[in-house]
Q: What sequence folds into this?
């Protein structure tokens, strides 16, 4: 099978072995975060619609689970853009819950949870993982660069309502970026907000994969000390994931590289560890995909990452 809407399973730092589902085209988002691992947002929009046909996603999931040998730890709705923009999200979640055993996770920027119908659509997930990078408007505009219709006060209110109403777990994530949200003022303000929000877990992340803007840097150690002081319950996930990508859903190495790297930039090291192919073959296929402008290689820290390129970006670059 060469899946279009699902990818992996891939190793995830919080969700173990996670099968990803992508209901939204690449970089279709109502934010344009400076740290986005998928690159710059090419389509900043706030329109809720059925971007990819729900029936096709369902058919792919059924095929995957008919053939799967090892069940993933989670089925995670995440993908290439913001899943809350998908109008059939509630139906998709309900379909997964009714047909498959693994719990459902939703990774989201949380922007539209203030809308009653959107909040209703996510009610059934086993765990929701929204991002809360800041509670200060000016920083929100600098770090998340939201669509003009998105106001921080609505986002923060929507998260609180979701936490109150959701039956599953609520895990908040802060992405710390040097010089943007790593000051004492920022972290103290976040800690005050978390006292109201009461998430089940709080994760502190840093840009471990290549960010959209190359000037984005991980914060200094002093920021981690501030987190320990003000948000002592927070868990740090500032490390690369362990585990491997499961290649069994893909007919070819090239399909795997393109499919996974568009949603989840992969380090060359992880790819080599996950597939049963020689380094020469892997490097040859990577070169060909680079030439076809389907992927690009990015050096980040000490590692080389592979990031997939969408059709739209390819056309825009010509
Ligand atoms: S990190 Fe998430 S919310 Fe931010 S631009 Fe990328 S896809 Fe959108």
A:
């Amino acid at each position: 099978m060469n899946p279009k809407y699902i990818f992996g399973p891939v190793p995830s730092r919080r969700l173990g072995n996670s099968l990803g589902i992508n209901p939204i085209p690449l970089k279709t988002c109502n934010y344009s975060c400076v740290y986005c691992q998928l690159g710059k947002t090419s389509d900043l929009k706030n329109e809720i619609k059925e971007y990819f046909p729900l029936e096709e996603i369902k058919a792919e999931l059924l095929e995957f689970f008919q053939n799967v040998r090892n069940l993933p730890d989670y089925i995670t709705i995440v993908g290439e853009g913001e899943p809350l923009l998908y109008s059939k999200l509630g139906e998709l979640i309900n379909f997964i819950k009714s047909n498959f055993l693994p719990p459902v996770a939703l990774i989201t920027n949380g922007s539209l949870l203030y809308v009653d119908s959107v909040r209703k659509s996510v009610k059934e997930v086993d765990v929701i993982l929204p991002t809360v990078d800041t509670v200060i408007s000016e920083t929100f505009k600098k770090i998340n660069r939201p669509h003009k219709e998105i106001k921080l006060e609505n986002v923060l209110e929507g998260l609180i309502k979701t936490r109150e109403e959701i039956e599953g777990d609520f895990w908040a994530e802060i992405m710390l970026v040097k010089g943007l949200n790593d000051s004492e003022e920022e972290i103290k303000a976040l800690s005050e907000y978390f006292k109201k929000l009461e998430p089940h877990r709080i994760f502190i992340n840093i840009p471990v994969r290549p960010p959209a803007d190359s000037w984005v840097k991980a914060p200094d150690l002093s920021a981690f000390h501030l987190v320990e002081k003000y948000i002592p319950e927070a868990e740090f996930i500032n490390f690369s994931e362990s585990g491997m990508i499961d290649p069994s859903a893909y007919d070819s190495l090239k399909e795997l590289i393109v499919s996974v790297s568009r949603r989840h930039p992969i380090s060359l090291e992880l790819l080599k560890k996950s597939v049963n192919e020689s380094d020469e073959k892997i490097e040859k296929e990577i070169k060909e995909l680079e030439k076809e402008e389907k992927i690009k290689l990015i050096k980040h820290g000490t590692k080389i990452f592979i990031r997939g390129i969408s059709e739209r970006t390819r056309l825009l670059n010509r």
